[in-house]
Amino acid sequence: MSNSVPELLNPNLKAMPSDYLYHLDINVANTNDTSDIQQRFGDVKVVCMGGTGSRMRALAVYLSEVLGLPDSSDPEDLCARGHRYAMYKVGPVLCCSHGVGSSTFSVVLHELLKLVKYAGCQDPIFLRIGTCGGLGVPPGTVVVTKDAFNGLLRNEHEIAILGQRVVRPAKFSEEVIKDIMAYGVEAKDSFQTVSGNTMGTDCFYEGQGRTDGAICEYSDEDKMTFLKKCHSLGILNIEMEASMFASVTQKVGVKAGDVCVTIINRLNGDQVTITMDQKHEFEKRPFLVVGRYIKKLLLH
Ligand SMILES: O=P(O)(O)O[C@@H]1C[C@H](O)[C@@H](CO)O1
Ligand SMILES: O=c1cc[nH]c(=O)[nH]1
């Protein structure tokens, strides 16, 4: 392992005397002396992120048990005053919500990357723990993303910057994928964990080929042709963050992984019909996989 603090790709940061991580409500008052931030966050090795604050709170409680940490049954939301995201710290793990989709996720991702930089965290690993629609796998299956495709079925992420289309590659760390599959999966699990490609779209409805949104200008047949094409590219699940997450972390050289549970098989329909109780049970499945992986990672 290299043991290095992430190098961010913004020369302007060096010239800023202070940096307010607005959405996290964390003030880096003096960027030349970040000892206070280092004291609070310098031990962070893993940053877990997922859509909702309640899932991230439950993950924090779960990980504190798995890692044998002193009582964290009621972790404090460190970003409560920001009213945007929720963030919990359990030992060397941060659990932070990111909202729905790449736009809300990218905001907090930029700020979390700056946070680990200011804190001097060594080789932090970023993980998304989410839900998704499956393609040809039964609901409840956990998918560990290999390559992240965007809604144009390209293994890249596209973003408008200064009025220009900027396209960046979207690859997750092969080491993280391999280790999650090796240490996170157990034969005794009551569910399947598979590794496959993921499509991250900008829209839950039209972007994912649903016919039940407020707008739909294609036929059921068009939809099925599209979903089958996705499947033929090795895409096993569809969510709304993978390509942005892979591309941003790849760009700054931070290792990352995406672990999501399927809550529907999109080859069979569009409506999510599982009960909320079932959904909450499914949501815990990636916790088991990621919990074992993190435990193993922290032993090294
Ligand atoms: O982390 P979550 O479960 O929020 O991720 C998926 C992808 C979208 O953000 C959202 C759509 O329902 O769920
Ligand atoms: O179908 C689904 C289910 C969850 N999240 C998504 O983005 N799509």
Please describe what this structure looks like:
It is a single chain. The protein has 300 residues and is α/β, with parallel strands linked by helices. It has one domain (12-299): Rossmann fold, CATH 3.40.50. 34% of the residues lie in helices and 24% in strands. The chain is built from nine helices and twelve strands. It has helices at residues 12-15, 35-41, 53-66, 101-119, 174-184, 220-232, 242-252, 276-283, 285-299; strands at residues 19-21, 26-28, 46-50, 87-90, 93-97, 125-134, 142-149, 156-161, 164-169, 193-200, 235-239, 256-265. The strands form three sheets. A five-stranded mixed beta barrel has the order 6-11-10-7-12, surrounded by five helices. The protein has a two-stranded antiparallel sheet with strand order 1-2. It starts with 11 loop residues before the first helix and ends with a helix. The ligand O=P(O)(O)O[C@@H]1C[C@H](O)[C@@H](CO)O1 is lined by residues 50-51, 100-101, 130-132, 204, 239-240.
Mean pLDDT: 96
Oligomeric category: single chain
Global outline: globular
* Helix content bin: 25-40%
Question: Nearest-angstrom radius of gyration?
Answer: 19 Å
Classified by CATH, the class is: Alpha Beta
Binding site for phosphate: 84, 128-131
Pfam families: PNP_UDP_1
GO molecular function, one term: uridine phosphorylase activity
GO cellular component, one term: cytosol
Outline the fold blueprint.
Elements: H1 12-15, E1 19-21, E2 26-28, H2 35-41, E3 46-50, H3 53-66, E4 87-90, E5 93-97, H4 101-119, E6 125-134, E7 142-149, E8 156-161, E9 164-169, H5 174-184, E10 193-200, H6 220-232, E11 235-239, H7 242-252, E12 256-265, H8 276-283, H9 285-299
Parallel strand pairs: 3-5, 3-6, 6-12, 7-10, 10-11
Antiparallel strand pairs: 1-2, 4-5, 6-11, 7-12, 8-9
Helix pairs in contact: 2-4, 3-9, 4-7, 5-9
Bound molecules: the ligand O=P(O)(O)O[C@@H]1C[C@H](O)[C@@H](CO)O1 and uracil.
